[in-house]
Write a structure and sequence with these properties.
The chain is α/β, with parallel strands linked by helices and 389 residues long. It has 13 helices and 15 strands.
């Protein structure tokens, strides 16, 4: 009798353990590493919201697998990013890491993705070099080169001959400056002042005074998403909005989720970027309406990067039949193309970078709100940084 009881207990234990292991194999875990505190908190919130919205709309299961997203806040501090990524991979057994609010954060995680052989979906970081740091990185956001080249060509054709530049002092800021400057000066434009500002907790005021004193036709500005509101506040306080000095640049400085709070000082700003909440398509109208309803705010380009990033994961899992092998997933992502709220996009199979339309937009008041209104489109733009190489 004792032997029978013991056999039953062991069998029950064994069955329970086996069921648990099978259940674990049926779940795909994604580690979402985003800045939810600090100066980049608004961007992390957009990424988190966008992933939540997509999963509400499309369910939390794909290809027979349940999707579990584990959100971690790195505060946009690369050392935190690296530690969190390692914890997610080793302790939580995630099969994918995603998010990454700034380029240094994405670069910090890259060696871990390579070592673990798992996809790293970059939903925001915009320096050209990012995808070169690991064969497992796939990007759904943009590169600064894509927008800087476009606005660098546009400015001299539209009466802007003298420009002062203000860019954040890190890799994306350097990319933005390099590619704008090359195109703008090649067309006969002149850079009359050039300043770089600290990435973390920048005080723009002293740099803005230098911009004002240089008396350019326009300021070329790159600050990362989330810092545009503070920049525009100090721009107004220094009286530059009344000086006749226009703002041009990549679209990060005019992020849609902060635009309404910038006031009339933002009116007339011309930027080049891959998304506007005013993008005229049925898909985008549905996306904006869904985001507003869910989170009582307007989505910006950051949210679209997150929305398309989780879409890429879902579609890759469909192609692999739910298999989570990193090499299989990355292979499935290469060359993938789809219609996004921003327009048609694809993943370059050679670089694993996003190919997309870049729009020139002007800030206008529409139905009482400020929007980046698109007025010119450049189709299927690749990363100019890699194209040059």
């Amino acid at each position: 009798m004792r032997k029978q009881i013991l056999a039953c207990v062991l069998a029950a234990f064994g069955f329970g353990w086996g069921a648990s292991a099978a259940s674990g194999q049926e779940t795909v875990k994604i580690g979402l590493i985003v800045p939810l505190t600090g100066g980049q908190a608004s961007t992390g919130k957009q990424l988190d919201n966008a992933v939540k919205l997509y999963m509400r709309q499309h369910g939390d299961a794909v290809a027979g697998k349940k999707i579990e997203v584990i959100v971690r806040d790195d505060g946009a501090i690369p050392d935190n990013t690296k530690r969190i990524a390692q914890e997610l991979i080793v302790n939580d057994k995630v099969q994918i890491i995603a998010g990454f609010g700034i380029t240094p954060a994405a670069l910090a995680a890259a060696p871990l993705a390579t070592q673990a052989k798992i996809p790293q979906i970059v939903m925001l970081a915009g320096a050209s070099i990012v995808t070169e740091r690991s064969p497992y990185i796939v990007r759904t956001s943009f590169t600064l080169a894509q927008s800087a080249v476009i606005i660098g060509d546009w400015a001299p054709k539209n009466g802007i001959r003298k420009v002062a530049t203000l860019t954040s002092d890190y890799a994306p800021g350097n990319d933005a400056l390099q590619f704008f400057k090359a195109r703008f000066t090649a067309a006969g434009g002149e850079i009359v002042e050039e300043v770089k500002v600290p990435l973390m907790n920048p005080d723009f005021a002293p740099f803005l005074q230098r911009m004002k004193d240089a008396r350019p036709d326009a300021m070329f500005v790159f600050v990362p998403g989330g810092q545009g509101g503070n920049f525009m506040k100090q721009y107004s306080e220094r009286g530059l909005d009344k000086s006749g000095i226009r703002i041009i640049g990549p679209g990060d400085v005019m992020d849609d989720d902060l635009l309404n709070d910038m006031g009339d000082a933002a009116l007339g700003t011309v930027t080049a970027h891959m998304y506007s909440a005013a993008h005229p398509s049925p898909m985008n109208e549905q996306f904006v309406a869904g985001y507003r309803k869910a989170f009582n705010s307007r989505p910006g380009f950051v949210a679209v990067g997150g929305y398309d990033g989780i879409h890429l994961v879902y579609e890759a899992l469909k192609k692999t039949g739910g298999k989570t092998d990193g090499d299989l997933l990355v292979a499935a992502m290469k060359g993938m193309a789809w219609e996004s709220p921003r327009g048609p996009i694809s993943i370059d199979p050679e670089t694993r970078d996003v190919v997309q339309n870049i729009y020139i937009r002007k800030v206008e008041r529409v139905n009482g709100e400020l929007y980046n209104v698109e007025f010119e489109t450049f189709k299927d733009v690749k990363d100019a940084g890699k194209s040059q190489k």
